[in-house]
Design goal:
Number of helices: 3
Shape: globular
CATH topology: Porin
Order of helices and strands: EHEEEEEHEEEEHEEEEEEEEEEE
Number of strands: 21
CATH class: Mainly Beta
Structural class: mainly beta
Helix content: under 10%
Low-confidence stretches: 3-28
Mean pLDDT: 87
Number of domains: 1
Radius of gyration: 22 Å
Length: 422
């Protein structure tokens, strides 16, 4: 969950203390099959995009099988509403069945919201935006776009994958994925200005017309093949292990997709211990690539920063700040313990991190205008930050996280959530 210019840091701390007191009685207990560990967190924030945002976030963890042979299942959810009448619901799961015979990965969302977009590709502003001043619309030059392009839309996502264990830590499976963007309002788009000024062509409109789809509504519906290797000791807050995932998704029109396409997602994480006596002191590495491999993807379905399953990539930037036909991301984080409590020696910790993003845009034409491409790695967008951790449940390693990050183009913000970013 990404909350900028927020004033709830003290609230977060008080909630963590309250949760700590409430769960002290179970801290010394061993993990138990079937026991559900639930942690709620109130959300109150001020954000230029959302106004005043409030609601509830929650984490639910459980061992569905014997903890000796079954890793902990995790879920994260949130329900928020803003003074600008924006409703957002998310529910994301990693479920391990008894003996880890199956892994179920889910990502369900409903948004009635608004979000700024910045064109396609990484790089200077002129490389990202469609309206570069030299384009034309019906014989008239278009206005230069030198700021974010605000959009309003409704969005329904249902992603669910089922993976079968082939051997220890190795899984293969299939999934179904549905993405529906509708009631799209492109606020900056103005084809026939009443004051007779130059028309404004947005990146979303130009891309939609270039691939010949309706710019008000589109659907992406498809099946995926998934290969997973997961040796992490804990999905919420890993201390060791590796995680590798490859997902190839096909979105045919006969399943309801507005345009036929295919995509590839590849991801890798690794955790390296830095202390024999303090396993929480470690360096974590995370990288992923999201690629359009064939066909045409609607603008809001293109690979974009912050649209991984748990929405954790790109701390410092707003969700979707960098978007393109292909996106690659990398992050490194050092985690370490600061202080503990008698019944929870790992209660208070800290992190420092850095990340980088690159995105490409393919060359295309619309209305007699040519949109130049942006190559992968032509521009790389960095960010860095630091944060604190409050472990509210040592049995499940459930953390409350509070991070501050800085990026380019004036991007910065406070990021609050449950569990580690990766």
């Amino acid at each position: 969950m990404r909350l900028k210019y927020t004033f709830i840091a003290m609230l977060m701390f008080s909630v963590s203390i309250f949760a700590q007191e409430k769960t002290d009685s179970i801290k010394s207990d061993a993990p138990r099959k079937g026991k559900v560990y639930f942690a709620p967190m109130p959300v109150i924030a001020v954000n230029p995009t959302f106004g005043v945002l409030y609601g509830l976030a929650f984490s639910t963890n459980a061992f569905l099988g014997d903890p000796e042979t079954t890793r902990m299942s995790t879920s994260l959810g949130s329900v928020t509403y803003s003074t600008k009448k924006q409703l957002m619901f998310t529910f994301k799961t990693n479920v391990y069945t008894p003996n880890e015979d199956w892994i179920l990965m889910g990502d369900w969302r409903y948004f009635d919201t608004s979000q700024p977009t910045f064109g396609l590709g990484t790089g200077p502003q002129s490389a990202k935006l469609a309206g570069a001043g030299s384009l034309e619309y019906e014989g008239k030059p278009t206005s230069v776009i030198d700021d974010a392009q605000m959009m309003e839309f409704k969005y329904l996502r249902f992603h669910e994958s089922f993976l079968k264990k082939i051997r220890t830590n190795f899984y293969i499976g299939a999934g179904y994925h549905f993405d529906w963007h509708f009631d799209i309002k492109d606020n900056l788009l103005d084809l026939t200005p009443e004051d007779k000024s130059n028309p404004v062509i947005t990146s979303h409109y130009a891309h939609s017309k270039a691939i010949d789809i309706d710019d008000k509504e589109y659907i992406l519906s498809g099946l995926s093949l998934n290969v997973l290797y997961d040796s992490r000791d804990n999905a919420a807050t890993p201390y060791k292990g590796q995680y590798a995932l490859a997902t190839y998704r096909v979105n045919p029109t006969f399943l309801g997709s507005t345009k036929g396409s295919s995509t590839l997602w590849v991801e890798y994480r690794k955790y390296i211990s830095m202390s024999k006596t303090k396993p929480q002191n470690l360096i974590g590495f995370w990288t992923y690539g999201s690629f359009q491999t064939s066909g045409d993807l609607p603008y809001l379905d293109l690979p974009a920063l912050g649209w991984d399953q748990f929405g954790r990539s790109g701390r410092a930037y707003t969700q979707g700040r960098f978007r393109g036909n292909n996106v690659m991301y990398a992050e490194v984080e050092y985690r370490f313990r600061l202080a503990g409590l008698k019944k929870n020696p790992d209660f208070f910790g800290a992190v420092v991190f850095a990340n980088a993003t690159t995105a490409s845009r393919k060359e295309y034409s619309y209305g007699g205008n040519k949109y130049e491409g942006v190559n992968m790695f032509e521009y790389v967008e960095p960010a860095a930050g630091l944060g604190f951790r409050f472990m509210i449940n040592a049995v499940t390693r459930t953390n409350l996280t509070l991070d501050y990050a800085w990026g380019r183009y004036g991007s910065q913000g406070i990021f609050l959530s449950f569990n580690e970013s990766f």
